Amino acid sequence: MLIDWEEAGGAHAFEIPVPDVIEAKEFYWNVFGAREVSREMTAEGKPVRLGLAFGRIQFTISSGKSDDEEEERPLLPLLADGLGVPFVAIMLHVENLDRMAYEAERNGAQVSAPHESGDIVVLTDPFGSHWVLKRREVTGEREFQLAHRQCNPKTRH
Question: By C-alpha distance, which of 124, 91, 92, 106 is closest to 26?
């Protein structure tokens, strides 16, 4: 199953189980440019849950439960089980599909061959989560800004 998270809206959240949140944070920073927006620690000071964001996407990575909560299954595996599908993939709209696919593979993801259209790549990150990268269509004002930047590379925006 495929979910276009940008279309789902910012009010929805998903959590990705990972063995090590610091290692996973590095992957998502290197590949997606994700920044940390929240952190939960154990009493011993070990991070167990990090909130990450890039673009309009926000999600959580976790390596277990914090000291004051009960174990809860992350949303994506729960959805997959409930729908009887092997996995749920998150679709991301990206401007530089080739660079992002290269960085994902360089950082340990399994990257499929691009779709015949050349606008879609499917990857499985080192932690088992599935992502579909779709080339963002450039239109209107954004297209003008990109063209202007290519013609005037020293101009700041």
Answer: 106
Q: What is the CATH number of the domain that holds 91?
A: 3.10.180.10
d(CA 89, CA 94): 15
Dihedrals φ, ψ of 54, to 5°?
-150, 135
pTM score over 0.70: yes
pLDDT digits (tens, 9 = 90+) for 26-49: 999 999 999 999 999 999 999 999
Q: How far is CA 64 from the centre of its chain?
A: 19
Distance CA 20, CA 13 (A): 20
| Domain annotation covers residue 103 | yes
CA atoms within 13 A on the CB side of 34: 25
